[in-house]
Model the fold of this input.
Amino acid sequence: MEVSNAMVRLHKEQFGRGPTSARSDFAGRDVIVCVLESVLLPAETKMVQLGDQNRVRDSRVTYQAATAGDFVAVVEGIVGRKVRAFASGVDPDKDVVFETFYFERDGDTDGESPVA
Done:
């Protein structure tokens, strides 16, 4: 819940409004995915209605790349693990954002698991 609340707060700070719902779950032991719904700004919603989903997607991904450090730092502080990789995705048609954090494992230098 703490990760979800932090993602809502960061989205509100970055975009001027937060999502209406957020849920964060571990996907295995090394990944957290946070799903945020009802995230688009009114202007972005209009762009989607005009068929300009790609522009919404491109701008959202650019904003997230610019602020990735803020998102990573907050999640590392909450979880107490180093984030190896962070990715943000948006589905403009469904008005959903996915924030995905991939953590390093203790003692791993590259985060890879040995292949059995």
